[in-house]
Amino acid sequence: MNDFHIDRRQVRHNFSRAAVTYEQHDALQREVQSLLLERLDFYLQTPERVIDVGAGTGRGSALLKKRYAKAQVLAIDLALPMLRAAKQHMGWLKPFGRICAEATALPLPDHSVDVLHSNLCFQWIDDLSALFGECARVLKPGGMLTFSTFGPDTLKELRAAWAAADQQPHVSRFLDMHDLGDAMIAAGLRDPVLDVDRYTMTYSEPRMLLKELQGLGATNADHDRERGLTGKRHYRQMLAAYENMRVDGRIPATWEVVTAHAWGPPPGQSRRGKDGGEIASFSVDSLRGSRRR
């Protein structure tokens, strides 16, 4: 479905290193989080288990625990230092669990999750089939998936500025909303709804944007990125190209944000396997009493 790959080790390294600085730079993440919480108004049941995938420093997990006080809330992240930092948001009366794991290999039983929430994490996963297949696996029938991710116009100014300096990929690439929707349907998720919003953040100079990206851990994790140090000449050329994009004295940076929700498939609904075939699952209880005639 896509022609690029994410270096998962680099993603883990970036976010592990950013655990202590993340919340100094997460204004956009907090804003998008509020949109995801609004989508949960569509979920009318009382959940027993809620998971926050890519929980980071746990702000979203704490908000989910506040909303669903009686539910088991689990913060899941691939970077252990992030989960350690999340402890600061755990209350004595409303604690949440913490699990170090990847979104494509959740250590949870089939059909055991009522609400699967993920804020600005899925853009760091290139195998959409595995990702949404895992979401469909752990969700209960009728359970809710709600997530946000970055779209392809994210950081388009920075990408253009680097393109003026050299032809190496310096900015991670992100998938289109239509690719996400197709992958959700292929995994068997029901009635997906996706929306796109664009935010423009401004900075006094390009270096402030780069400092923010590093503080968030949102630096380039493209598998085909240049491994060596960027030359000073190319770096200066990039800064000069970005300076030409000033608007009203400020440096702009676009963030294209896709927010979405969908529902866990009913028992036995088929989904596409990695080999292109279809897979259907049934509970043992549903087969009891059946016999060959």
Describe what is shown at a glance.
Residues 262-293 are annotated as: Disordered. It is built from ten helices and nine strands.
Name the features.
biotin biosynthesis; BioC; SAM-dependent_MTases_sf; 293 residues; EC 2.1.1.197; disordered C terminus; two-stranded antiparallel sheet; 32% helix; carboxyl-O-methyltransferase activity; Rossmann fold; alpha/beta
Question: Could you please describe the fold and organization of this structure?
Answer:
The chain is α/β, with parallel strands linked by helices. The chain has a domain at 8-153 and 173-198 and 256-271: Rossmann fold. The protein is 32% helix and 22% strand. It contains ten helices and nine strands. The chain has helices spanning 8-17, 27-39, 59-67, 80-86, 128-138, 156-163, 177-186, 206-216, 232-243, 284-287, and strands spanning 49-53, 72-77, 97-100, 113-119, 139-150, 190-203, 251-263, 271-272, 278-279. Strands 3-2-1-4-5-7-6 form a seven-stranded mixed β-sheet, with helices on both faces. Strands 8-9 form a two-stranded antiparallel ribbon. Helix 5 (128-138) crosses helix 7 and helix 6 crosses helix 9. It is globular, with a radius of gyration of 20 Å.
